DNA sequence: CACCAGGCAAGTA
DNA sequence: TACTTGCATGGT
């Protein structure tokens, strides 16, 4: 399996090249984006973030002072805007109270302790927590998502009921903990998923992993 | 028109 | 523990 995982990575990298994740101007923007992108395509999230920038509201201080309705209006294009406003507020409270909105302070915290803290925030689940850890704070943790699971299931590398933790351990116990590689690997799986492994599977037969 | 997107929590049994 | 459901916009 170790070799298989490496083989897949190198194949994807050679086909698609570096993906340049996470598309954002700052770690804080990554964290906001991680919450907004829950079960939503990136284009809609991008529009929501553009609204926040246009309103000059993209900072922990500004966002936390913004009235609920005002914030909900700004992030509307991202969908689920009421629940996401609540989740953003929950995260901001956490970020301000525990870390004084300091990325630097947050980065100093131990990886697993911080992950546990993030999971304690209502609205932050495993994928969102791991996305924040990897893409905002450069911590060596592997992000799993629906594409990861679907791709590995379709290639018969896992069974259908594999859990998030099982998938994550599969990667982390078989690969060296390398932030840059974890970054690229997850992004490449999303790219592969978008192009060849949608739910309603238009072109699974053309997937570059077929011939491995 | 139907289907889906870089999830998560709450409710039910 | 193991399902099920609500949340919502915008693109194909």
Explain how this protein is built.
This protein is about 60% helix and about 0% strand. The protein has about 210 residues and is mostly helical. It folds into two domains: about 1-20 and about 140-205; about 25-135, Hypothetical protein, domain 2 (Endonuclease III, domain 1). Helix 2 crosses helix 3 and helix 5 packs across helix 6 (about 80-100). The structure holds a DNA duplex (13 and 12 nucleotides).
User: What distance lies between the first and last C-alpha atoms, to the nearest angstrom?
Assistant: 13 Å
The fraction of residues in strands falls at under 5%
Number of helices: 12
CATH class of the largest domain: Mainly Alpha
CATH architecture of the largest domain: Orthogonal Bundle
Q: Summarize the helix and strand pattern as letters.
A: HHHHHHHHHHHH
Which ranges are low-confidence, i.e. pLDDT below 50, for 5 or more consecutive residues? Answer: none
Number of distinct beta strands: 0
**Which sheet architecture does the biggest sheet show?**
none
**CATH-level-4 superfamily name of the largest domain:** Hypothetical protein, domain 2
Inertia-based shape: globular
Give the number of domains: 2
Overall mean pLDDT score? 97
CATH topology value of the largest domain: Endonuclease III, domain 1
What is the radius of gyration computed over CA atoms, rounded to a whole number of angstroms? 18 Å
Please bin the fraction of helical residues: 55-70%
Labels describing this entry:
212 residues; mainly alpha; 2 domains; 12 helices; DNA-binding
């Amino acid at each position: 399996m170790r070799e298989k995982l490496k083989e897949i990575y190198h194949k994807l990298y050679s086909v698609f090249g570096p993906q340049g994740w996470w598309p954002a101007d700052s770690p804080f923007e990554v964290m906001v984006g991680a919450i907004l992108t829950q079960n939503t395509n990136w284009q809609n999230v991008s529009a929501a973030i553009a609204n926040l920038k246009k309103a000059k509201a993209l900072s922990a201080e500004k966002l936390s002072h913004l009235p609920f309705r005002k914030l909900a209006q700004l992030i509307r294009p991202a969908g689920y805007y009421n629940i996401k406003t609540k989740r953003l507020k929950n995260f901001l409270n956490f970020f301000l109270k525990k870390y004084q909105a300091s990325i630097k302070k947050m980065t100093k915290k131990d990886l697993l302790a911080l992950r546990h803290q993030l999971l304690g925030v209502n609205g932050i689940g495993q994928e969102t927590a791991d996305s924040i850890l990897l893409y905002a704070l450069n911590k060596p943790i592997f992000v799993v998502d629906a594409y990861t699971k679907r791709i590995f299931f379709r290639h018969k590398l896992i069974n259908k009921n594999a859990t998030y933790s099982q998938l994550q351990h599969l990667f982390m116990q078989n690969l060296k903990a390398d932030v840059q590689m974890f970054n690229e690997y997850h992004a490449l799986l999303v790219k592969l998923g978008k192009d060849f492994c949608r739910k309603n599977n238009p072109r699974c037969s053309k997937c570059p992993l077929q011939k491995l």
